Amino acid sequence: MHLPGHDDTSSPSDQRSADRRLWLRAFNLSLAFVLLLTAVFSAQGSFELRPWTVQPWSMTGWLGLLTAPLLHGSFEHLATNAISLLMLGTLAGGMYPRATLRALPLIWLGSGLAAWLLGEA
Question: I need a surface site. Which of 26, 65, 69, 103 has the fewest CB within 10 A?
């Protein structure tokens, strides 16, 4: 896959190598995030979850905008999110790395903000 850019390489083998590094980096970052989610899930039993969740229409619920995406209700919930994140994170990071970096904070905060605004107090 050849996408012209500022780090454009001259030969096809150099381009293949650059593409391989890009896809491997996208996969590794997705895998690291899945491992972070797994670590948080395994630690969830040792702390009180309520302060870390989105609490609609509450000023104390703002912390949950940052932390709630890391929490999961069951192993099945974690597993389905992990599979999706690994596949879609690799795909997005490999195809559109700069757009992915811009979109992730918006998706992370936007989903929490929507839960905060649309939830019942």
Answer: 103
